[in-house]
Amino acid sequence: MSDQQNNQNQLNIELSEEIAEGNYSNLAIITHSNSEFVIDFIKVMPGVPKAKVKSRILLTPQHAKRLMKALKENVAKYESVHGPVKDVEPMAIPLNFGGPTAQA
Predict the structure, then answer these.
(1) What is the pLDDT of residues 6-36, one digit of tens each?
(2) Domain ranges of the chain
């Protein structure tokens, strides 16, 4: 492959300082419609009755499936180096967190 073809296949991604800091999330709620998946990343704090959505990501079904595959591959790579990730007991949270209701 020539250098010109290589350059055409590259994607330059810009990451601002604000975004690079990231947001902590210890809960994700996923809802969907026939055309999109919505993932709300939430920070739940002990003793605080109200949790805040820190980020909302909207994906097409195709991109949601790609994300699922990428997460599965990366968890497997992580576990091959660090050992199995312990599964935690599910939290008892209300099923309707005020967001959209999942639809098939």
Answers:
(1) 667 899 999 999 999 999 999 999 999 999 9
(2) 21-82
Which amino acid, one-letter code, is at 10? Q
Report CA-CA distances (Å) from 60 to 6, 31, 38, 44, 96: 28, 12, 9, 27, 22
Sheet holding 27-32, edge to edge: 27-32, 37-43, 52-59
Give the pLDDT confidence of 89-102 residue by residue, as tens digits: 776 655 444 555 55
Buried b / exposed e along 55-71 (16+ C-beta atoms within 10 A): eeeebeeeebeeeeeee
Global pTM value: 0.72
Sign for the CA dihedral angle at 6, 12, 79, 91 comes to: negative
Predicted local distance difference test score (pLDDT) of residue 22: 94
